[in-house]
Design goal:
The complex is a heterodimer of chains A (380) and B (161). By secondary structure, chain A is of the alpha+beta class. Helices cover 35% and strands 17% of the residues of chain A. Helix content of chain B is 35%, strand content 2%. Chain B has a two-stranded antiparallel sheet with strand order 1-2. Classes of the chains: A alpha+beta (380), B mainly alpha (161). The structure holds zinc ion (ZN) (2 copies). Chain A: It is found in: Cytoplasm, Cytoskeleton; Nucleus.
Chain lengths: 380, 161
Amino acid sequence: MRDGKVAIIFKRLVPNCIMKAKNERRKQYIGSQIDDCKDLSGIFYLLPFQKGYLVNWDVQRQVWEHTFGKDVMNLEPEDTNAIIAEPYFDFSSIQEAMNEIYFEEYNFKAILRTNAGTLSAFKNRQEEPNQLCCLLVDCGYSFTHIAPYYNGKKVGSAIRRVNIGGKVLTNHLKEIISYRQLHVMDETYVMNQVKEDVCYVSLDFFGDMKIAKLKGQENTIVRDYILPDFSHSKRGYLKQDDTKLKPHEQTVRMNNERFAVPEILFHPSDIGIQEMGVSEAIVHVINNCPTDMRPHLFKNILLTGGNAMFPGFKERVESDVRSMAPALYDVRVTKPVNPITHAWEGGKLLSTSKNFSSLMVTRDEYNEHGHSICWEKFDV
Amino acid sequence: MAVVQEQTKRESGRIKDVNQKRVLDSYTRAKRLRKQLEALEQDNFQEDPQANLVIPNKRLPQFDSNEGSNPAKKKKKTRGDHFKQRFRKTFNMLVEEEQLSMQEPPNYLTACIPPSKTPDRKFCAVCGFPSNYTCVSCGARYCCVKCLGTHQDTRCLKWTV
Ligand SMILES: [Zn+2]
Ligand SMILES: [Zn+2]
């Protein structure tokens, strides 16, 4: 541009937590500072969220201040508009705290508080304007929400929550590996990577169980995973068949664990949580919507959140829902290129839309009307 | 004579042992399951490596979660901390508040998905493969004699979660 300014849009993913390393007795790593940490074994977490809701404000504010500050975004809140994504059914007390902190403490110019799923559904509607409805599945860290959207608006009364997310999966993996092989209860960070690197959603669960029981070459599921030791390697990786282990290398063997762990998303009762799994819940939620909406929801199921990244996740949802849906309805399931940042992309798109400013509450409006204008404008 | 006596003694000893085999009641079994599920929600298994560390002039995060808040170690309040005091609530307090608020559904509590309509599946508590047998003592599942042995030696009645 002529004045030398270039509009740069960049996204930064910052872990929303403070971490402590076993071998760094005094240092704390806030958000992306963890990139500087050389030894990620035994990482201790301070999380602002509990069961998906913001409860530890001290931790959250430190992460925000780090993120807004010069290390990450280097922004002036007074001149900045912010879109804030909150969980569905966020508690009133948390919503009011958000208003106060963003306006009174950080002095943002204007904010829009909404749900991540609403941003994803907005993007979907822009990309596929012919779709009247969208069945948004947000399968994240603390839980999974299934939220129907009609004409871009969420159908609040039909939204349901399955209390399974990535956290339960990682903790369960830690537990079974610790019992069966090697004590890894303190290795949340490492075992989360093991989960991401080798777990998958099975398309034939009991068939895969049979294969995993086989010995030798016939077992095409079993994998040995070399754990990082943080002197030779910072990240673990799959052991190649023909290579010999080096003396410093330690492995975990992932066999039925590879698919039994993500299976909890589809059968929470496998670990004693008496709830429907994701696929059954999708069908349940659609069947609770008005009849004329149902075919439109079945043909536009959108998968977001980190668990959608599991290989096989989309195909499994597709085949499960197909088998439970009425035969005359089309079933179409979409997984965006990046299910984790899809809501962010939706927010970016929304911020360039014509009526964006009418959706926001400005600092001046807040100073005049307080919480009431936020309750009026934001549908969280 | 002596030999027979010896045998009877051993026999009765074994019978006694079998009779005394403890069986967990349903209350204990439910409690065990609840503890296991609570463990799956935990942020950390280990202790805070800096729990006893005092860093002077540095903002330390305070835990307002239910466990172990230490009023003696309260830091000096800044203005911001003071006016946010009323927002310091644990997750359970938030849910309770929602229950009392008579807020019209839908809300957090009404949004929970109901139980599955399909029957539970059974997996071996030791190896994770499908299982056909239930441990008489504790109700855990096992798939073979080998896994039953491991289960009895490691968890079963010994396990306090
Ligand atoms: Zn077994
Ligand atoms: Zn037992």
